[in-house]
Design brief:
The structure is a homodimer. By secondary structure, the first copy, chain A, is mainly α. Chain A contains eight helices and two strands. The first copy, chain A, binds a DNA duplex through helix 3.
Chain lengths: 156, 156
DNA sequence: TTGAATCTTGATAAAAAAGTCAAGATTAAA
DNA sequence: TTTAATCTTGACTTTTTTATCAAGATTCAA
């Protein structure tokens, strides 16, 4: 279970653009490239995905650039992550993990599928009310939303 | 954010072997291959990972095969998923997503990192007490552990 | 002791994801 | 009108993950 590079970089670009929303400044691909340390080509590719997902608007030309298509508190992180990386579990998952068979051998009764759904629910519960606005504050503010001690990292 | 094929297939193989634990029967690679619809070569590779992770024991020779190395209620799913697919977030994650730079541009203050940690915590809370034993029952039994209605699938 | 069935391992091939590139379209300012 | 700065798109290359293969080692039973 991993986050994709596209989710990581996409979210970072969106946050970066979001920080300039209230001063009504648009950001260009070269600017974002420098800020985030991602190549211009890659930034362009990622922003295209976000634009087609409806989160960004772009303007061409000499004074062009990217802006949010809605205020940060109207952009739901769960939607952004879906566009950037798909869902953890959906009904097509079993169909793409059938091994050599046409249909999964566990179709009618599958503990693994149930586990994936349960994990998906847990993740959804975290994300359901989270907006881009919540990610524009400090790290501590975000942790406090979820009652997590900033220093605690259960991976250690 | 996706599950890897290795996590899916590995867990299915482990469950399959676990179902035979109480009758003390070992399963061979060809048997598991047929049951799960995964090629023998792939089963062999996946079982090697599970064996090296300490969850399985193998016996060679004409009457060989694989058995659990501990009772199902002693095998923690969180450990199994770690061996099969790593962790969602760990401290090396930022180091591998630095773009073109040597270190991530957001080292000191990073909302994305915080979000990943929060999601990781949510997943850990689901998994922390779950054992292989819980996956050997029916799907409904598993759902009831987490108060999820079997029909409900938030991905729809 | 021989042979069949099994697991073991490292190398290879195929598929998917990530990242790069080049040519083009659009816009605003000089 | 010209020029420079910008976004846009599809194709390509590289890297990572997944799956396959072939040769070998081990064990049991006849």
């Amino acid at each position: 279970m991993k986050f994709s590079a596209q989710e990581e970089y996409g979210l970072r670009c969106l946050i970066r653009i979001g920080k300039y929303f209230k001063v009504e400044k648009s950001l260009t691909i070269p600017e974002i490239s420098v800020y985030e340390g991602i190549s211009q080509h890659n930034v362009g590719k990622i922003l295209r995905i976000l634009r087609m997902g409806g989160f960004l608007e772009s303007e061409r030309g000499q004074s062009g650039g990217y802006t949010l298509s809605a205020p940060p508190d109207k952009i739901k992180i769960i939607d952004v992550l879906f566009v950037l990386g798909g869902r953890l579990y959906d009904d097509s998952f079993c169909q793409s993990h059938t091994g050599m068979n046409d249909i999964c051998t566990n179709t009618t009764e599958c503990s693994v599928r149930s586990l994936w759904k349960i994990i998906q629910d847990a993740v959804d519960n975290v994300l359901v009310n989270l907006t881009l606005q919540d990610l524009l504050g400090t790290e501590d503010n975000l942790f406090s939303l979820f009652d997590v001690a900033p220093g605690s990292n259960s991976s250690n």
